[in-house]
Amino acid sequence: MGWAIALHGGAGDIPLSIPPERRLPREAALRHCLHVGVEALKAQNHPLDVVELVVRELENHPNFNAGRGSVLTTSGTVEMEACIMDGKTKKCGAVSGVTTVVNAISLARLVMEKTPHIYLAFDGAEAFAREQGVALMDSSYFITSENVERLKQAKEANRVQLDYTQPLSKDEKKQTLTADGDSQIGTVGCVAVDQHGNLATATSTGGFVNKMVGRIGDTPIIGAGTYANNLCAVSATGKGEAIIRGTIARDVAALMEFKGLSLEEAAAYVVEAAPAGTVGLVAVSATGEVTMPFNSTGMFRACATEDGLSEIGIWHSSQN
Amino acid sequence: MGGWAIAVHGGAGIDPNLPTEKQEEAKLLLTRCLNLGISALRSNLPAIDVVELVVRELETDPLFNSGRGSALSENGTVEMEASIMDGPKRRCGAVSGLTTVKNPISLARLVMDKSPHSYLAFSGAEAFARQQGVELVENEYFITEENKGMLKLAKEANSILFDYRVPIAGLESCTAVAAAVDSPLQMNGLPISIYAPETVGCVVVDSQGRCAAATSTGGLMNKMSGRIGDSPLIGSGTYACNLCGVSCTGEGEAIIRGTLARDVAAVMEYKGLGLQAAVDYVIKERLDEGQAGLIAVSKDGEVACGFNTNGMFRGCATQDGFMEVGIWN
Predict the structure, then answer these.
(1) Which residues participate directly in catalysis (chain B) (predicted)?
(2) What is the mean pLDDT of residues A115-122?
């Protein structure tokens, strides 16, 4: 028993050869966000507040695909989505299609606490944001020059892949995957448990590069990208369509609940059952366990527990 | 292999004062939809085509809350959503915030078949609809006089019960609210007579054991613009895998929290329960205080339904000749 926290900055095809100027700022951000979360837990903040706080930090960091630094849609715009859930009450809130809200995760929290609904999207979510008086910014705040370039590359590489009327050749697929190499399908998330066993999860994303306008991924969908109950809290990342299909976050909890598996067994089972290269997740249990499995090349991740474990990683442990 | 089976629903939670002729109308529609599905199954259409076909019929008829006859948002407009899932490969498609697409379920199918994504919403979904050339109509097509009246009533009742900006005081000053407080039957805080719970759905297993599920709705009467409910969410309102197909209806927020549709499959998969036992378990254990219902079929040709409301518009049939249409508990 004791508190535990885990966070991620996206899973995907992160090449081992990623240059230091891309790797180091992200590692520093993970370290910083972990520190913020650990201090908040030590100060007895509720896990719901902790995951919101940590995801806000991750959203504000331009190197991760959420909030500032979100990747661009095929129209060159930003459409962010986020979701938050409290384990004990299973109360939850979600937003999609947010274009001006600085911290989408905090708007999701407001949907949970201040509306009779769970999920608001697009214009309705923006109108709610204005009504609630959350911090808003022009879309130029969210769009980084790196992501403008990324969209350009994705469009060149993707032209054929996204045009579903034509078959996809292997070479083109390869080109797409290596077009940039990091954070293309990234997402940020955080899970936390306090020493009383209170659990919470939060996930936030810009989606993926060159997505169709209006596309909703796994992040805001309770049970897919985000889920918490009284046993565990889970935040997933990777290929949205695979995560939705696999109801990844709920399945970790369902395996614990219905099959009696441990957190680590349940999470490993779910990630192994998903197609290779599509899924990563971070999870904590009510008893303070933590696990961070992924079946992609890498996952930007960090975790800490009350009994002194502290870890930051990108690739599988032998490669870090 | 137990042959084909089909179930349809038109929503859980029913006004106990629903006029008899409305009840008859609902039963006729459910029967017509069942027969449509049965004919398609006898013609060996795959399950995924049958659920789409049946839900199109339910959307096109104005009786239930989907497609034409959808409940109205607080702005008096219609914002429809739907999802569909094919069991064998767990392929799925979903749409939200549709305002001009005559049959949302068919657009969800196109998202599944013709886009790289699983879920498109609002203007992006409408743009996709235009690009795919599906049938479009003016928003007025979906709006019925009856629903205009219901929205008015809902606004009177809701202005206090639902509006979080207004403190709950002076409840007795509003007749609709007084009725709501008096009435034991409420869903999402609304008296059931104006709640419009009639989401539609269909689940099918074909004679080859392939399961599919489809759900479509206009959502909650007087909902905030942009509100997404359980119907388009894979795992909540709709789910299908190689074991079963499930479509849910009722209080959306409770269904989402309970990931109700996936949980029927999950207790079969991880707990080893049979279909009806799984449905009963989920209705009992996964809804907390929420009110909802669901229909389900298994790969072995079983059919089941469950609800903790006073009733659910439903019908089901199996290959061995069983057929049933019901409303009340």
Answers:
(1) 199 (nucleophile)
(2) 95
What is the distance between the alpha carbons of residues B72 and B70, in angstroms, rounded to a whole number?
A: 6
CA A292 to chain CA centroid, nearest Å? 13
Q: What is the pLDDT of residue B189?
A: 67
Sign of the C-alpha dihedral computed for residues A279, A282, A286 and A287 taken in this order = positive
Domains of chain B, residue spans: 5-139+195-320
Integer CA distances (angstroms), B201 to B34, B51, B64, in order: 12, 8, 11
Tell whether B124 is within 8 A of chain A (Cβ).
Answer: yes
Across the beta sheet with A290-291, what order do the strands follow?
A226-228, A232-238, A279-285, A290-291
Asked whether the beta carbons of residue A250 and residue B162 sit closer than 8 angstroms, the reply is: no
* Tokens 């892949």 belong to residue: A161
pTM of the model: 0.93
Listed in sequence order, the DSSP H helices in B169-273 are 175-182, 252-257, 260-271
- Over the stretch A142-174, which tens digit does the pLDDT of each residue have? 999 999 998 998 888 865 444 333 334 444 444
Residue type, position B296, single letter: A
Joined tokens for residue A79: 């459409």
Domain ranges of chain A: 4-162+183-313
Start-to-end C-alpha separation, chain B: 30
Alpha helix ranges (H) inside chain A = 20-42, 47-60, 104-114, 122-132, 139-142, 145-158, 170-178, 240-245, 248-259, 263-273
Task: For residues B187 and B190, give the distance between their C-alpha atoms in angstroms, rounded to a whole number.
Answer: 5
- Write the pLDDT tens digit of every residue in B56-100: 999 999 999 999 999 999 999 999 999 999 999 999 999 999 999
Cβ atoms of residues A200 and A172 within 8 Å: no
* Cα dist from B244 to A1, A227, B7, B51, B155, whole Å: 38, 23, 12, 13, 39
So what's the ipTM on this one? 0.92
B259-271 per-residue burial string, b: 16 or more CB within 10 A, e: under 16? bbbbbbbbbbbbe
**3-state SS assignment for residue A130:** helix
Does CATH place domain B5-139+195-320 in 3.60.20.30? yes
pLDDT at position A159 is 56
Strand (E) or helix (H) holding B48? helix B47-60
**A-contacting residues in B 208-237 (Cβ below 8 Å):** 220, 223-229, 233-236
- Average pLDDT of every residue of chain A: 91
Distance CA A263, CA A269 (A): 10
Q: Which fold has domain A4-162+183-313?
A: Glutamine Phosphoribosylpyrophosphate, subunit 1, domain 1 (3.60.20)
Q: Is A115 annotated in some ligand binding site?
A: no
Instruction: List the single range of A161-175, A230-244, B170-184, B218-232 with lowest mean pLDDT.
Output: A161-175
Q: In the block, which residue shows the tokens 């409290």?
A: A86
Give the active site residue among A73, A144, A187, A297.
A187
pLDDT tens column, B114-151: 999 999 999 999 999 999 999 999 999 999 999 999 89
Q: What is the pLDDT of chain B when averaged over all its residues? A: 90
Quickly state the pLDDT bin for A22 (edges 50, 70, 90). Answer: confident
Q: How would DSSP label each residue in A164-204?
A: TTSPPPHHHHHHHHHSS-SSTT--EEEEEE-TT--EEEEEE
Contacts of A255 (CB under 8 A, 6+ apart): A261, A265, A266, A269, A270, B270
Residue reference for tokens 């890498």:
A298
Q: Which of the 8 DSSP states describes residue A72?
A: P
Chain A residues within an 8 Å CB radius of B224 = 115, 117, 120, 124, 128
